[in-house]
Amino acid sequence: MKKIFWEILQCLLISGLLSLLCLPLVVLKVDVAEELIDWQWDKLLWVTIYSFTGTCLWRLLKHHPSPRFFEAINTLKKPFQPLALQVIQHPAIMSCLLLSGLIFLPWILSPYQISILTTALMYVVLGLGLNIVVGLAGLLDLGYVAFYAVGAYSYALFHEYFGLGFWAVLPVGGILAGLTGILLGIPVLRLRGDYLAIVTLGFGEIIRLVLENWSEVTKGPQGVSGIPSPDFPVHIEYEQVAIYMYLLMLMMVTVTIVVVKRLDHSRIGRAWIALREDELACQAMGIDTTRTKLRAFALGACWAGFVGVFFAAKNSFVNPHSFTFMQSAIILCIVVLGGMGSITGVILAALFLILIPEYLRFMADYRMLVFGAAMVVVMVFKPEGLISNVRRRYELHEEQNYG
Fold first, then answer.
1. Is 274 helix (H, G, I), strand (E, B) or coil?
2. Which residue in 289, 51, 305 sits closest to 191, CA to CA?
3. Which of 143, 186, 224, 321 could bridge to 203 as Cys pair (CB 3.0-4.6 Å)?
4. Taking the CA of residue 266 as centre, how many other CA atoms within 13 Å lie in the half-sphere pointing to its CB?
């Protein structure tokens, strides 16, 4: 009897967790035109009932197996086994399938959910950019939001004073942020650990204060408004702009993943990892640590500049209060929570940290409390991050002839 009770309790727990995960997509339905939110709790109840019933049936069959049932399952699985093995053994196929699914999401979700997903994708790119500096090179940067601000204000000011469009400013924003990263990197080359964190924190605050007080150019705390969305080769209705911004960010995320993956396996990537593990040993191996650090700062800042341009185009408005230390802390949390140097972990952490607080808005003042508790639980049980980066290993075997 006690065993049955624990089995039912486990089924309830599994169905409860599944319902919690499905909550944002199932319950919330936003009518943007009427500015109304429809809470569809009945759908969540059905999800809970179905998942509880399915879990109970699966556990019943697992502990009391029916030969006929498993024979039928094996018969059904046989035709699909070769295809499933092909998909599992080739990550590129899985990535293409996942990307195809994400491309069609805007035609399924509401505009509100598309907007949140676009913001989450922006933080994915920011997390991957900071992952170069913190996760790979091991340089603690608490002022990363400064490069984000440089990119956003590049688009805002170039459009305000010179009338330049999104596509013209996009590379300019990345280059300016990269140059700013080099300017920051030069004076902090000899610093490490806490000292480096304090200097970068100060740099981020200096950029924000300059934007706030240089009113003649940046318009001070009021910010710059009327920033246009990207120009498209075909005519697009106003309601469809959010969909195309989402698709552009999805393309940006894909390019960023490919570039960071290639950097991780390149010569410079191995130099960054050597710098992170032991700087003295890195110097002894003949690696130019000065150039290695500057490359990390420049490349990390470059991605923040690109996302800053997207941010200005998406919101049509920028002001200094969008680039506070809290933003830097969130991006750093994404890297630490996801796992230092792990691309997949950073993506999952960015989605977790951006989507969960948005979907917990119905809990009003308690949502940040729940969010903080969830973060504490994750860090207690997974201190190395959601997905820790697997260190590459090279093995020598006696039977191999090395010349």
1. helix
2. 289
3. 143
4. 10
The amino acid present at 97, given as its one-letter code, is L
Tell whether the torsion through CA atoms of 280, 281, 287 and 293 is positive or negative: negative
CA–CA distance, 130 with 230 (Å, rounded to integer): 25
Q: Which amino acid is at 67?
A: P
Q: Where would I find the beta strands (DSSP E) of 210-330?
A: 224-225, 317-318
3-class DSSP state for residue 318?
A: strand
Helix residue ranges, H only, 287-366? 289-315, 325-338, 343-359
Q: Which of 180, 395, 207 is nearest to 298 (CA)?
A: 180
Q: pLDDT tens digits for 61-112?
A: 776 666 666 666 666 666 666 655 565 556 677 777 777 778 887 777 778 8
Q: How far apart are CA 283 and CA 163, in angstroms?
A: 47
Q: What SS3 class is residue 392?
A: coil
Where is 30: in which H helix or E strand? strand 28-31
Q: Based on C-alpha coordinates, what's the Rg of the chain?
A: 24
Cα–Cα distance between 33 and 50 in angstroms, integer?
33
- Give the up-direction half-sphere exposure of residue 287: CA atoms within 13 A in the CB hemisphere: 23
395 burial (CB, 10 Å; 0-12 / 13-18 / 19+) is exposed
Query: What confidence score (pLDDT) does residue 123 get?
Result: 92
Structure tokens belonging to residue 231: 């120009």
163: left (phi over 0), alpha (psi -120 to 50) or beta: left
d(C-alpha 121, C-alpha 310), whole Å = 11
Is the backbone of residue 260 left (phi > 0), alpha (psi -120 to 50) or beta? alpha
**For 229-281, how does the pLDDT look when each residue is reduced to its tens digit (9 = 90+)?**
887 766 777 667 888 888 899 999 999 999 988 888 888 888 888 888 888 88
CA 28 to chain centre: 22
- CA-closest candidate to residue 330, choices 173, 130, 182: 130
Dig out the tokens for 96 from the structure: 């293409």
